[in-house]
Input
Amino acid sequence: MRAPTPAEKLLLSLGIDSAKEIDVEAIAWDAGAEVRFAELDSCEARIIGYGNRAIITVEERSILPRKRFSVAHELGHWKYHRGRSFVCRKDDIGNQLKGPTDPERVADSYAADLLLPSFLFVPMAAKTRKATFEAIDEIRAEFGTSRTATALRMVDLGPEPAMLICHGAQKRRWFRRGDDVPDRWFPRDEIDAESAAMDVLHGHCERTPRTLIGADAWFDRRDAEQYEVFEQTVRMATGDALTLLTFKSLAMLT
Ligand SMILES: [Zn+2]
Output
């Protein structure tokens, strides 16, 4: 297992050893930050710091997993960008298009480590044995996290090599490839007509079962024709299609 990150070290130092104990407001308080909830018009969350104290304000009308992620995200700013104030819009939090050194992504990464720490996530994900949305739902019920945040974690730390791809009506918005998946597997811009992901994108269903499909439906490479992948797609609150791909053939992974 990888070495604990700063957020994971903080949890360990607080003696937290189960998902249900991750109380972000208490953790924030401990770090000198008071959390308030209010109706915010121009942003999803913000942090104003002065000296060793800060006030984090989070949009109260958002769903609980979102609010928890926002608190953890602001704590990421508190850890790494102390001395600056941040006003984080919906687009800033959990935006997969920003580069890894962007302050918003740094804060997101801290939030993922705080809410889904590897020392708790990896053993639970290993028990599910497969990277599916059913497994993700089981895990996020324990951790109180969103489906997308949990699915991203599944790609990074789950029981099998996987890829997560988000498509909007026009084309692919973003994707995340697990460390075990070679770079040559770069997903197509558009969803293939053969893929059941199309039904989800068109709103005909909310979720597809995990199904085998020719890898060429997802990858525009000549050698893709020889392989099959498992695909499973769910409809996001935004209407976008979120697909998990896992690999049937080990040859794709070498
Ligand atoms: Zn932010």
Q: What stands out?
A: The pocket of zinc ion is lined by residues 73, 77, 86, 88, 92-93, 104, 107 (CB under 6 Å). The CA atoms of residues 19 and 174 lie 28 Å apart. Residues 1-159 form one domain.
